Structure formats: C-alpha cells, structure tokens
Amino acid sequence: xxxxxxxxxxxxxxxxxxxxxxxxxxxxxxxxxxxxxxxxxxxxxxxxxxxxxxxxxxxxxxxxxxxxxxxxxxxxxxxxxxxxxxxxxxxxxxxxxxxxxxxxxxxxxxxxxxxxxxxxxxxxxxxxxxxxxxxxxxxxxxxxxxxxxxxxxxxxxxxxxxxxxxxxxxxxxxxxxxxxxxxxxxxxxxxxxxxxxxxxxxxxxxxx
Length: 208
Fold this sequence. Notes:
By secondary structure, the protein is an alpha/beta fold.
C-alpha cells in the first residue's frame, strides 16, 4: 500500500476487475485490485489514502462483512458499493453502517468516476482532520500536570488572578504557566485553545 490516493477494488469477477483497471488508469487514477475480501484485509493499512470500491455479493466474506470488519478496525476509508438489481435492501444497510455511496449495476463509467472523485476528496478531508487531532493530542500530552490545570481554567475563561487563587500560586507563576501552555499547544489565543479542546472532545465522542 502507498501514501498516494488509490482506488482499491474488491470483486471476485475477473472481467469486472479488468474493466475497472482500464477505466481507472484511463483517467490517471492509481488502483489496486483484489479477488476477495480476505485478500484485501490481508494487506490493508488504515493509513492508506483513497477509497474502496466493493462488490456487495462475493463468495466467502461478503462486501457487507468486509465493511463490518473495517468498522471494527476503525478504518475511515470511504466505501462505494457495487450492487445488483436485488441488492437494494443490502445497500441501504451498508449506508446505515457508514458506506459512502452505492451504484446499481449496470452503471455508467462516468457515474462511478464521479463518486470515486468525491470519495477521494472526502478521504483527504478525513485524513487532514485526523492529522490535526493527533497533533493537538500530542501537544496536550506534552503539558505538565500543573500546565494542564492552568489550561483547563483558561478555557473556562478564568483570569490569571482567579487561576492563581484557585491553584494557590502567585499570578506571576500563572503567567509563566500560561505562556508555556500557549507555546506547547501552538495556539495564538485562548479562543484557539477552546476550539482545539472542543475538537478533541468531539473526536472522542465520535470514537465511542
């Protein structure tokens, strides 16, 4: 797997895989083809950028079962399902479990390419967001226990004098801790600190 945005196609039909390869390469998209869900899971890395185009009905592990496995692993890769005429209830279930989109066979090449481009854009947005959250979390972990106490009071709007009284230290000591908090967190204002902490809280809630 590479760091480049890649369209990963999982389909047990060799004809479909070959057609997908030709289509994707004709518009300059990187692709990787897999004959089964098990083959895909054997090499998939959550850090891989791109999207997954997945047949909903396959022997062995089905597309829905693969989606469930990815969800259990916390994978964020957008999934586009390819479905047959009688698979609409399954497609609805897939969407309820977080699928990005689905296409009913037969479909126009352009319809698939449009969805793939939107999925890749969504994936880039998700990776950027996760990278930002990881940066904030790393900075937060670099704070000392006292600096974390000061941070918690800062984002509540407490002024230096009030923080000093609550922590039993001098206002000058609070000023020093406050400056270190701003430097370590890479924030330019208390408003920015508040946004960072709200973003982390929202991310933690989404993970649950």
